[in-house]
Design goal:
The complex is a heterodimer of chains A (293) and B (376).
Chain A lengths: L1 E10 L2 E11 L4 E6 L5 H8 L7 E6 L2 E2 L4 H4 L2 E4 L11 H11 L5 H11 L12 H14 L4 E5 L7 H18 L2 E5 L3 H7 L2 E6 L2 E7 H6 L1 E8 L13 E7 L2 E7 L3 H9 L2 E7 L3 H14 L1
Parallel strand pairs in A: 3-8, 3-9, 6-7, 7-8
Antiparallel strand pairs in A: 1-2, 1-4, 4-5, 9-10, 11-13, 11-14, 12-13
Chain B lengths: L1 H28 L5 H6 L5 H12 L1 H27 L4 H9 L4 H36 L3 E2 L3 H29 L3 H27 L4 H7 L9 E8 L2 E8 L4 E6 L2 E6 L4 E3 L2 E3 L5 H4 L3 H27 L13 H18 L6 H19 L8
Antiparallel strand pairs in B: 1-4, 2-3, 4-5, 6-7
Helix pairs in contact in B: 1-4, 1-6, 4-7, 4-8, 6-7, 6-11, 7-8, 7-11, 8-12, 12-13
The chains are: A alpha/beta (293), B mainly alpha (376).
């Protein structure tokens, strides 16, 4: 288990993350979402042992991470900017991994490369962003980590590569019982993968819960107001967001209950149907409320 | 260390080959031995000629203690530059941080490898120099029994000197974030070091009292406590810096033993005894140089220990300097470097030198971080 306990990190006088606590369990995929500048990358880098937090601790299976080589062997980290050592070829980078990580499985790397199709003789500098991302994933997975930290891993990947990546990731979690923390702006992908979602806002944890729990707090309704409705009456405390096509409104409502159902009927709502809500819709609704407050 | 070495040994092989090639070339091309010319001169008595040969041999003094350190220092700066060039990018620095090895250990491994490379190369160059000189003197039926001891002394002191310089380089590297800036700062500091040596030697060493000389003496390795003397030889005046201690030494010529002393300059009647630079003979006496060699070693060890401790505390989230004191420290180094650069050339205009140095310091401080405080 990765346990992040009350960590804070600031640089250049700016607080990047503030008193963050979270846990990543083996065999689970935890998503990390937040606005640009929310602190996702800083948090992940602290968890990868690159940055040292100014307060708090990060432990892996109760062992402190900081400057601990034996823990670093267990962590796989795919950054959003995998430059590695640019002047090296992929083959040489492979050698670095084989040297430093005793558990590195070259056969696994080669199996993955049959799908990702990278030229081993190519210099890392010459790879595109998507190719570097693929390389990063292959290298980190092939070293058989116990935990994987992925920072925007699908950015730059074409649809086929992204599909392969997601499939392999799930496979690894199931087969090897890896604990994964994945940050992404692609909420559709996270929705398919994640068991839990942590939302960061301004360096703090806004919420950390299972996907289903998160969705339980909000309800998406399709409502028909046959005679129209005064949109000002759709109080923001109740309706987080709405869109409309003609008289058909799609509302996202927080803590929907009988009382709110009656309130809608009083406004003239006729047909009402609860719809499935995507993580993206949920997140946008939450962000919209934050923006307006 | 084995893992790190497996990936980086090529740098050291190349450095080793380059050092050996340069040093062997320097040794083989050196033409400071003019024994043949000395013996063809009829004017001098045999003893004087033999003493001139010893003086000539002290030419290796300048090779080992002036040229060889420069070769090593420049060589290591280039080696470090190649290794650290990639670390100008944040991504490479952060990648290295994810490897399962402690940062400070890498610093130690690099230091140990630099020192091993130095020791091996110095050993080879001492051997090569010794063989070359023995062969050379054997042509004139001469033997200098203290020569091997002197070369050992030079070699040991050179290794210790390089340890000091490496310690300084690693210390400077440990406070800066970017790999390219590490090298520039280290090179600038070492340049300052080299520039100050000659100036300190002339301005500080000569004519000062004995205790002060002893204190500053480590800066000029072979200045084992001396004074400036004037010698006259056939109305030709010469100033020099001579060792105080009068060391006995032997020389064999055509099977016959000749006994000499290094002596200090004295005038006896109408003859002048030569005072020799301490050079090669003094370095055959362990007690005369070992204090200085140890001082270099201790200072170098201190610097590398500091570098290791600072490396442990580095915060990779920083962008230019790892520590708050670093900009001022580097700024002061730049101040001294610029000052010395001008001062050794125009010492009478020391105030102008101070001004140039101050401008350089302020410019550096502005570039290093002062920009934020100025509204553009």
């Amino acid at each position: 288990m990765i346990k992040v306990d009350n960590i804070s990190k600031s640089y250049n006088g700016k607080v990047a993350i503030d008193s963050i606590s979270l846990t990543v369990l083996p065999g689970q995929i935890q998503g990390l979402v937040g606005d640009n500048g929310a602190g996702k990358t800083t948090l992940i880098k602290c968890m990868a042992g690159i940055f040292k937090p100014e307060q708090g601790t990060i432990t892996y299976d109760d062992n402190d991470l900081h400057n601990n080589p034996s823990i670093k062997e267990k962590i796989g980290y795919v950054s959003d900017n995998n430059e590695y050592i640019g002047r090296y070829t992929i083959k040489k980078m492979l050698k670095v991994y084989e040297t430093y990580f005793p558990s590195f499985d070259k056969d696994k790397f080669e199996r993955l490369n049959q799908e990702f199709k990278l030229d081993l003789g190519a210099k890392i500098d010459s790879l595109s962003k998507g190719q570097k991302m693929r390389l990063g994933f292959m290298l980190e997975v092939a070293k058989k980590p116990e935990y994987l930290l992925l920072d925007e891993p699908t950015s730059g990947l074409d649809p086929v590569a992204k599909k392969t990546f997601l499939e392999r990731l799930v496979e690894e979690v199931e087969k090897e019982n890896i604990g994964v923390l994945i940050s992404s702006h692609n909420l559709g992908d996270l929705e398919k993968l994640c068991d839990t979602i942590t939302i960061l806002e301004s360096g703090k944890v806004k919420s950390e819960s299972g996907l289903d729990e998160l969705k339980e707090s909000l309800t998406k309704l399709q409502v028909v107001f046959e005679n129209g409705v005064d949109e000002k009456l759709l109080s923001r405390e109740t309706v987080l967001s709405f869109s409309k096509v003609g008289n058909v409104y799609t509302l996202i409502i927080e803590d929907y209950d009988g009382k709110k159902e009656k309130w809608l009927k009083d406004l003239g709502a006729g047909y009402m149907e609860e719809l499935d809500m995507s993580l993206e819709e949920l997140y946008i609704a939450l962000e919209t409320r934050k923006g307006e407050s | 260390m084995k893992k790190w070495l497996k990936l980086n040994y090529k740098y050291y092989v190349v450095a080793f080959v380059a050092f050996v090639a340069v040093l062997v070339r320097v040794i083989s091309e050196c033409n400071w031995l003019t024994v043949g010319d000395i013996f063809t001169t009829d004017k001098l008595p045999l003893e004087a000629k033999l003493l001139m040969v010893v003086s000539d041999v002290s030419g290796i003094n300048s090779q080992f203690l002036v040229e060889y350190p420069k070769i090593f220092v420049v060589g290591f700066i280039i080696l470090h530059g190649v290794m650290l060039w990639g670390q100008r990018n944040k991504s490479e620095r952060e990648f290295l941080e994810t490897l399962p090895v402690k940062r400070e250990r890498i610093v130690l491994y690099r230091f140990v490898m630099d020192v091993i490379t130095t020791i091996v190369v110095v050993f080879i160059s001492c051997m090569a120099t010794y063989v070359y000189m023995c062969n050379y003197f054997s042509e004139y039926d001469m033997e200098l029994p203290w020569l091997s001891g002197a070369l050992v002394g030079y070699g040991v002191t050179l290794c210790c000197y390089v340890v000091l310089i490496l310690g300084v380089i690693y210390f400077l590297e440990s406070v800066m974030v970017r790999g390219d800036l590490k090298i520039i700062t280290s090179a600038a500091c070492i340049l300052m070091f080299q520039q100050t040596t000659s100036w300190l030697y002339n301005a500080v060493m000569c004519g000062k009292d004995h205790i002060y000389n002893k204190f500053i003496g480590f800066i000029k390795m072979y200045a084992v406590g001396g004074k400036e003397y004037k010698i006259d030889y056939n109305s030709w005046e010469n100033y020099g810096y001579w060792i105080e201690k009068d060391i006995p030494f032997d020389l064999y010529y055509q099977g016959q033993k000749y006994e000499f002393r290094t002596g200090i300059n004295t005038v006896e009647g109408d003859r002048t005894r030569w005072g020799y630079t301490e050079g090669v003979v003094a370095f055959s006496e362990l007690e005369l140089y070992i204090g200085y060699a140890l001082a270099y070693l201790v200072l170098g060890a201190l610097m590398i220990l500091l570098a290791v401790q600072l490396t442990k505390k580095q915060d990779l989230a920083k962008r230019s300097f790892y520590f708050n004191f670093a900009p001022v420290m580097v700024g002061l180094l730049i101040f001294v470097t610029v000052f010395m650069f001008f001062f050794v050339q125009i010492p009478e205009y020391w105030y102008s030198c101070l001004l140039f140095a101050l401008i350089a310091f302020m410019l550096f401080m502005y570039l290093a971080g002062g920009r934020r405080k100025i509204k553009m």
